[in-house]
Design brief:
alpha+beta, two-stranded antiparallel ribbon, 1 helix, three-stranded antiparallel sheet, 42% strand
């Protein structure tokens, strides 16, 4: 089952829960897609 549970706070991409697993990152109250989180980590280095 696929259910939309939010949107990425950087790019606005829809984030989904697939079969009970959230496909995104939630840290410190901020929800991001995997691509934005990866880009954020690259910019920190």
């Amino acid at each position: 089952m696929r259910e939309q549970v939010g949107t990425c706070q950087q790019c606005g991409r829809a984030l989904y829960c697939l079969d009970g697993f959230f496909y995104g990152i939630k840290e410190n109250g901020v929800v991001l897609c995997f691509e934005c989180k990866e880009q954020e980590e690259e910019n920190e280095v």
